[in-house]
Amino acid sequence: MWTYFKYILSFRQVASVYQEEKAAGKPWHASRRFWGALILALSVIAKGVYGIVVQQADIDVVAGSIPELITSISALYGVALGVVGQIKKQKAVADAPNG
After folding, report:
1. In this structure, is the dihedral angle defined by the CA atoms of residues 10, 13, 14 and 18, taken in order, positive or negative?
2. How far apart are alpha carbons 33 and 22 in whole angstroms?
3. Which segments of the chain have a pLDDT < 50?
């Protein structure tokens, strides 16, 4: 919130500054264009190689579930990090000299 306060005080267009910053820092894998091209390419490969017919409804389901998939993978990664950290902590406590 306070990031754009200096722009407000200098009477600059905060929306344009925000858009410039947002566009400059966006990673390539976060763009809708990339995911659309990937889904299209996978659909064409599935049709050509395996003879699978992919309907528009199927593509919509896959495209709609990408955010949930990324969130789920991130959550599982966080759980794995917590478990590994706890195991390392327990091992360090067990290996520590009594003292």
Report:
1. negative
2. 16
3. 1, 99
